[in-house]
Design a protein that fits this description.
The chain is α/β, with parallel strands linked by helices. It has six helices and 13 strands.
Length: about 280
């Protein structure tokens, strides 16, 4: 049976979050936690593929216990099962350590039900790296297809997938063997409102919750801060750009003002030797 695993993340709503002026870090208490928007589209696409080809959709995430709410949101969208790996030993993980932990969870899931396809959002809105999906693919030794904005076909009998990958000037058609991993764009689909039966199912649903000790063959040194070769030394809000200049008076006066501004910025229009 076709089995799709969607990797998700619970993130702070970056439209609301504020910066702590003393520590120059994000104050996560100021914003509600939501399902990463890119991941919502990944789950929606997984559900659509399930409807086209049959099978089941599982979601997996690493995070604190409240991340259960993100899994419930995925059940609302149409996922069948949810897995949360949560443990203090996961804390402080960068993208390398995160991909390792999530890979271990997927390997355990696959022992019960083999995984044919993994789908991730292109990136998370709190990190913007786009590294976890390809990192999982590398650890599982399967092809990663990034920036996917259309799934053309899945051929389970012959074991391949055909997708469109978004490029700056168009798209390219790529065929890959299965199993493989997609990291998808938000333009791949629209996430509709969840039907009432799904909402009721999500309200009652209890996901599988695993700690480090529930996973198999785990190298503790590759988890959390110990397994993270990169750190974020400082985060700050960008300065707001200065406001524009309003030209006042009649058209002739405005032209005079505009010429004066251009003369003051003439160095921007002068050619430089060697360029």
């Amino acid at each position: 049976m076709f089995h799709i695993v969607a990797c998700i993340k619970q993130v702070p709503d970056t439209k609301i979050i504020k910066m702590n002026p003393k520590t120059n870090t994000m104050d996560r208490r100021t914003a509600p936690a939501i399902l990463n928007p890119y991941d919502a589209h990944a789950v929606e696409e997984a559900v659509r593929l399930k409807q086209r080809y049959g099978g089941t959709v599982s979601v997996v995430t690493m995070g604190p216990p409240p991340a259960v709410s993100a899994i419930k949101k995925c059940i609302e969208i149409g996922a069948d099962e949810g897995y949360l790996i949560t443990d203090r030993r996961f804390a402080g993980a960068d993208t390398l350590a995160t991909s390792y932990a999530v890979t271990k969870a997927i390997e355990k899931i696959a022992k019960t039900r083999p995984v044919d396809l993994i789908i991730c959002g292109k990136m998370s809105i709190d990190g913007d790296t786009g590294q976890v999906g390809p990192g999982i693919a590398r650890r599982l030794d399967i092809p990663p297809l990034t920036s996917v904005n259309k799934v053309v076909a899945i051929n389970l009998e012959e074991g391949y997938a055909v997708v469109h990958r978004k490029l700056e000037d168009g798209y390219e058609v790529v065929q890959s063997t299965l199993p493989c991993l997609f990291s998808v764009e938000k333009t791949i689909n629209d996430v509709p409102y969840s039907p009432m039966p799904n909402m009721l199912k999500a309200a009652r649903y209890k996901p599988h919750i695993w700690s480090v000790d529930d996973l198999e063959d785990v190298d503790i040194k590759q988890l959390g801060l110990k397994g993270s070769p990169t750190i974020v030394s400082k985060v700050w809000a960008p300065q707001k750009p200065a406001g524009g200049t309003f030209l006042e008076g009649n058209p002739a006066a405005q032209v005079e003002q505009l010429l004066q501004i251009l003369l003051e910025k003439k160095e921007l229009f002068e050619s430089k030797e060697g360029m």
